[in-house]
Write a structure and sequence with these properties.
The complex is a heterotrimer of chains A (360), B (286) and C (249). Chain A is an all-alpha fold. Helix content of chain A is 73%, strand content 0%. The chains are: A mainly alpha (360), B mainly alpha (286), C alpha/beta (249).
């Protein structure tokens, strides 16, 4: 059994080692940088696919919001659609009635409204078992759908919100049928939200969330006010989901009742299952794969695509979500190491600190 | 007003028959089966085919629907569900949602997306007028059948060997196994019967609830409300929860039409805040 | 004034009285051991002290302050931390992350969502000190789930210690630790600073008698004997409870 030597001399080295490790942990890995470069390059690379890319970006942000509560805080929810829909209708209504004309301001306000709604409903998910949480979140979402349906004079009911007129962003860029401005807008918003989420996840707050997810009993026993942390992340995630909903309304100038549907929440879960939870990129990658899958299946059987989605879900669960996640994690690890090797070849000086970066 | 109570009770008892299988499944194996509504739909469509197309009399069509759905449930349980028992709840939810999507699309493909109606025999149409309360004959039948079923279920649970094995397994699975109870077989039979009851409910309720391929999606939330409000440790809990929800929904839609279904969601949320384990469950957490 | 005190503490579970009129008094800086046969209610007392269970009667005083109604996380802030009989660790985090988390919570930066973990040198310095004290330096980058049991047990205590408690409650720290790893654990417990008051629950009598300066004996939920180790060791009633005809011992 090795005895650790006296504290005096190795301490400075150990401290530096720890500090360097922690800083390195939060650094953007080469793979991440490549991902975002490619994402922004897609604006010029795929000019005929703006509409589907825009939908993917919105779905990615929506999935990111669920990853924050599911992957990092361990809250199972079928109700993110509630916040998506609330902000969707809010942004549509403020545009339609000319209350907030600048889309960016409307976007932020919609996010805040959704976050406020998340805050108010957060106490519902704190109590009870997983089943209770599923029920309550689903119930809130469906309930809002009912409310939107009943107040059809305001929301347009089953026909959807009509007559939404979105002003040009910052007075210059208007959303047109080709979708270029719409996609750029969504991509930039996605990136900004992602950076915020990344900051949160690598902060002490983010670490405390992971501890709450892993062992809430111990988290409380080391002084973490578990309830308030969960309320906080639930509120933030609701805000992100709301921003995604507002993006959809603003770029399509339309909002309908299906924003509150079970299908939307279920598809969201599927996106995260495909992409993996707990490392932030799961929602983004899952969204891309899901949209690709949807597009492909829709060309084969446009009407019964729900059947194939159901089949995918069943198969994934039967095969084993851990195996799917394990395969994805292995692929990620492989790509990450590949990226590191390429990076150290390009920039040998920064290899001095060595070792893999965020390879979780 | 009493007509509303009467209708509400009929609706509630129908909900109970539909949802009690789900309640027992959840309490027994801690398994969230969101596809329960699909079995109800199967029973409904089975009756439609039997009665409308094949000319089978209504009184036969309904029990046959029960049997067919029970067999279907047993088959699914042995081949598919058994692989998912030990999985975390999220996996079970995803699995059963996947099954729902598949069943909805499959029924849409084979039977079309329009609402179907069962040809009810003439004897059951119309209503009785009792002390000024209009009692629909069909609803009276529903109350009678569901009432008998409830009593039968309660008797089976309380008086038979199978019932005591089931209750033991619900209470503590490991101990039950240790006592030599074949929990797997108990569950298989229970799942089949529960699915059959759902099918029976679907067959009886097609008229009242509206039968189309989206049935499982529309009514899933109702079943889940019954189960969460009523708890999973007895039959009595979901029974009263169903009656409460039935009356609440019918009364809500009548008195406050703008917010009809809103009422039951609000009831569910209020109950879950007050007692997260359900109104009638034991207070020991599961 | 004792640093930790319970007054008439009682806990009922239905018809069962798990803790009956427990009047425990722990002096500042003490090395106080709580012993008793299995099922005597020792862990119940710890759970009551830390707020995991609510007492049916009685009060708990920490440093003169009534904490009976305080939530578990509040008691940690007030200076009382505990370890668990069965390890309660953050299996997906590394020891470095777990310890860093506790320290940053204590320093009040736990809710900070913008700062990057590791950017505060005060935190880093403390991490080093604790990692070395608890001999975790060689495993600090590994996932907790993969650590050998002895190291996990050390981490269990390290997490509680990182809260810089005034009172540290150790619930059977040596439980399940293989012989080869016990020495490291016991040495670490011995080396705890004198200003931290330690309340220890243990079955291992060697550890109890070498470590404690005061012993309380709990039997069937009630305090049976309370005194200096030599007196407790000689007390014939204690011998009877542990070795004698007591049917529920």
């Amino acid at each position: 059994m090795a005895e650790t030597p006296a504290a005096a001399s190795p301490t400075p080295v150990l401290a530096d080692d720890i500090a360097a490790y922690l800083r390195r942990r939060a650094r953007w890995s080469p793979l991440e940088i490549a991902f975002w470069i490619f994402a922004f390059a897609s604006i010029w690379l795929f000019p005929d696919k703006y509409l589907i890319l825009k939908d993917t970006a919105i779905l990615a942000l929506f999935a990111l919001s669920l990853d924050l509560i599911l992957g990092y805080a361990g809250i199972i929810s079928l109700g993110q659609a509630a916040f998506f829909g609330v902000a969707g209708y809010f942004s549509g209504l403020v545009a339609k009635y000319g209350l907030i004309n600048e889309p960016v301001i409307a976007l932020v306000c919609s996010g805040l409204v959704a976050a406020a709604f998340g805050f108010v409903t957060s106490f519902l998910v704190l109590r009870g078992s997983d089943l209770t949480r599923l029920m309550v979140t689903l119930g809130v979402s469906l309930m809002l759908g009912e409310v939107a349906n009943r107040y059809a004079n305001i929301t347009g009911g089953a026909d959807g919100l009509q007559g939404v007129d979105i002003a040009p962003v910052l007075g210059r860029w208007s959303f047109d049928l080709y979708g270029h401005n719409g996609y750029v807008y969504c991509l930039i918003v996605l990136f900004v939200c992602f950076v915020i989420a990344r900051r949160i996840v690598y902060s002490p707050f983010g670490l405390s969330l992971r501890s709450v997810k892993g062992n809430p009993l111990r988290a409380a026993a080391i002084g973490i006010p578990v309830k308030w942390r969960l309320v906080a992340i639930y509120t933030i995630a609701a805000g992100f989901a709301g921003i995604a909903g507002a993006l959809l309304t603003q770029t399509t100038a339309f909002c309908s009742l299906d924003v509150f549907s079970l299908e939307r929440s279920a598809d969201l879960l599927l996106v995260l299952i495909i992409g993996g939870t707990g490392y932030l990129y799961g929602g983004l990658i899952g969204a891309v794969i899901y949209k690709f899958l949807q597009d492909w299946i829709a060309t084969l059987t446009p009407q019964y695509w729900q059947f194939w989605i159901g089949l995918v879900l069943v198969v994934i669960v039967l095969v084993g979500r851990e195996r799917v996640e394990g395969a994805i994690a292995a692929a990620r690890g492989f790509l990450a190491r590949l990226g590191d090797r390429l990076w150290t070849r390009i920039r040998p000086r920064s290899a001095a600190l060595g070792g893999a970066t965020d390879g979780r | 007003m009493l007509t509303i109570v009467f209708d509400g009770v009929a609706y509630g008892m129908l909900l109970f028959v539909l949802a009690c299988g789900l309640s027992v499944t959840l309490g027994l194996m801690n398994f969230i089966n969101l596809a329960h509504g699909a079995f109800a739909m199967a029973g409904g469509y089975c009756t439609v085919i039997l009665v409308n197309r094949l000319g089978v009399p209504f009184v036969l069509g309904v029990p046959i629907a029960f049997l067919v759905t029970a067999l279907l449930g047993g088959l699914f349980e042995r081949t598919l569900y058994v692989h998912v028992y030990a999985r975390p709840h999220l996996d079970q939810v995803l699995f059963t949602i996947g099954l729902v999507f598949m069943s909805v699309a499959a029924v849409d493909y084979t039977m079309g997306s329009s609402q179907r109606f069962v040809q009810i025999p003439d004897a059951l149409q119309g209503q009785f007028d009792v002390f000024g309360i209009g009692m629909g004959k069909y609803r009276l039948l529903i109350i009678a059948v569901c009432g008998l079923l409830t009593v039968a279920l309660q008797l089976i649970l309380a008086k038979t060997r199978f019932g005591s094995r089931l209750r033991a397994a619900v209470d503590d699975q490991r101990v039950a196994r240790g006592l030599g109870i074949n929990v797997g077989a108990v569950f298989g039979v229970t799942f089949a019967v529960g699915s059959g009851l759902a099918g029976l409910g679907g067959a009886l309720g097609a008229e009242i609830l509206g039968l189309d391929p989206t049935f499982p999606l529309r009514y899933m939330i109702y079943f889940l409300i019954v189960v969460t409000v009523g708890g999973t440790s007895s039959i009595v809990g979901p029974f009263f929860a169903s009656i409460l929800l039935g009356i609440g929904d019918v009364a809500g839609k009548y008195y406050v039409p703008t917010l009809g279904a809103f009422v039951i969601y609000a009831i569910m949320i209020v109950v879950l805040i007050w007692r997260p384990q359900g109104l009638f469950a034991r207070s020991t957490a599961r | 004034m004792p640093i930790l005190e319970t007054i008439g503490l009682e806990k009922r579970f239905g018809g069962i009285l798990a803790a009956a009129n427990v009047n425990l008094s722990v002096e500042k800086g003490a090395r106080h051991a709580l012993i008793g046969p299995n099922g005597a209610g020792k862990t119940t007392v710890i759970n009551l002290l830390t707020g995991v269970l609510k007492p049916t009667a009685g009060r708990i005083m920490l440093e003169g302050r009534d904490i009976t109604d305080a939530a578990p996380h509040q008691r940690v802030r007030l200076g009382m931390a505990r370890t668990f009989q069965i390890n309660q660790l953050f299996l997906d985090l590394t020891p470095l992350e777990s310890i860093g988390l506790v320290i940053s919570e204590r320093l009040g930066t736990g809710a900070d969502w913008w700062r990057v973990v590791g950017s505060m040198s005060a935190v880093t310095g403390e991490i080093v000190e604790i990692v070395e004290r608890f001999r975790l330096a060689d495993v600090m980058h590994e996932r907790t789930a993969t650590l050998p049991y002895g190291k996990q047990r050390l981490l269990e205590i390290a997490l509680a210690f990182a809260c810089r408690p005034h009172v540290l409650l150790l619930d059977e720290p040596a439980a399940g630790v293989p012989e080869a790893e016990r020495h490291e654990l016991l040495a670490t417990i011995e080396a705890l600073p004198a200003e931290v008051t330690v309340l220890l629950i243990e079955h291992d009598m060697d550890l109890v008698f070498s470590f404690a300066d005061r012993i309380s004996v709990l039997v069937n939920g009630a305090l049976f004997v309370d005194g200096a180790p030599e007196d407790v060791a000689r007390d014939p009633r204690v011998k009877a409870v542990y070795l004698g005809e007591e049917l529920d011992a």
